[in-house]
Design goal:
84% of the residues lie in helices and 0% in strands.
Length: 368
């Protein structure tokens, strides 16, 4: 959707801030649905919820091809998110349930690379599709991708029995109360959310920023954003293949690096104004560090209360997506007021991540 914003602004007659609801509706759909998916996955198993979710996503994507109004597009984007959000919850739960901690963290690193690479590289694909085949082609491709995922889940994900506590009276409420009382869960979930906030602050207005402030074309923006995706994947790849990066010492060094990046982002703007270097340098540095740190926050959240891994996966993802939606809206609003403020928002999200990281690990020490 990101590269479609300028064209949609012209065709639908709405300004950039109004079009941000297309992003906000999507992340709100994820935030609302994923805690429910977590409960259902713990109670009835993974397969039924997967198949239902991807079916909803396909239907919404097909309907978007024929939609001509902003309100209808916003509603269908919400349905897309409700459908596809099941994948994140089930994937995290399966990893936590079936792998020992060391292997689980490496697998979360691979998952992070995939989850981080696709949202960042998607603007590249979306820009190319829109340029050569028109805006509607983006929704057609999404429907085809959803159909492929539905077929893959139908063939590859076996039926699994409900978890042993699923039949307990009030089990879902007990699970969420356990999570809500866990400092470690809140710290890791908040840290994950602020990392998402850093990305979505720039993602929501990226194409407009690069076009209006730096005079770059859609293709140039796609190249820069795609390059940052490769940096993000490199960070996760290093974590999955280099054991020392998962140690407390190196993780803390990465956190300190993120703090430096977060504080330097607005400092660069103050020193030299809103320039391409002042935006891309913090972007690339944060992407590398996020690739290293995100798997730890994801695994820490689902492992905070192991008995409720599915519910934890849903709730932590919901927290992350809610914060992504907030920063998407906040970044767009600040951009409308003054473009340079977007880097202040970016830096603030990074400082928030560091604070939540410290809270999570203080909670671990208290539990120990």
């Amino acid at each position: 959707m990101v590269p479609l914003v300028p064209a949609l602004s012209l065709s639908l007659g709405h300004n950039v801030s109004e079009l941000q609801y297309l992003f906000s509706a999507y992340v709100i759909g994820l935030a609302v649905s994923q805690p429910i998916f977590g409960i259902v996955a713990d109670r009835i198993g993974r397969r039924p919820i997967l198949l239902t979710g991807f079916t909803v996503f396909i239907v919404a994507s097909v309907l978007l091809v024929f939609t001509e109004t902003l309100n209808a597009m916003i509603f269908l984007r919400f349905l897309q998110a409700v459908g596809v959000g099941v994948g994140t919850v089930v994937a995290r739960g399966i990893i936590r349930d079936h792998l020992p901690p060391a292997e689980a963290l490496k697998t979360f690193a691979i998952l992070t690379a995939a989850m981080g690479f696709t949202p960042v590289i998607a603007p590249v694909a979306g820009g190319l599709l829109a340029t050569f085949f028109g805006m509607k082609s983006v929704f057609i491709v999404l429907a085809l991708l959803g159909s492929g995922m539905l077929a893959l889940c139908f063939r590859s994900i076996p039926s699994d029995p409900p978890r042993e506590h699923a039949g307990e009276k009030g089990a879902s409420l007990k699970g969420y109360l356990s999570l809500l009382r866990s400092i470690g869960f809140w710290g890791h979930a908040g840290a994950f959310g602020f990392l998402q906030g850093m990305v979505f602050t720039l993602l929501a207005t990226g194409s407009v920023l690069f076009q209006d402030e730096f005079g770059l074309s859609m293709q140039s923006f796609s190249f820069v954003w795609g390059s940052s995706a490769l940096v993000y994947v490199s960070g996760s790849f290093l974590l999955s293949h280099t054991s020392y990066l998962s140690t407390k010492k190196w993780q803390n060094r990465a956190v300190m690096g993120m703090l430096i990046v977060s504080l330097s982002a607005p400092a660069l703007i103050l020193a030299q104004g809103l320039t391409l270097v002042a935006v891309t340098l913090p972007l690339f540095a944060s992407m590398l560090l996020s690739g290293i740190l995100t798997p730890t926050t994801m695994y820490g959240a689902v492992n905070a209360v192991p008995r409720w891994s599915g519910s934890a996966a849903g709730l932590s993802s919901s927290i992350g997506m809610t914060m992504a939606g907030i920063f998407s809206w906040l970044g767009a609003s600040l951009y409308e007021h003054h473009p340079a403020l977007i880097m202040v928002c970016f830096g603030g999200a990074g400082v928030g991540f560091v604070c939540c990281w410290l809270l999570a690990h203080r909670g671990q020490q208290s539990s120990g």
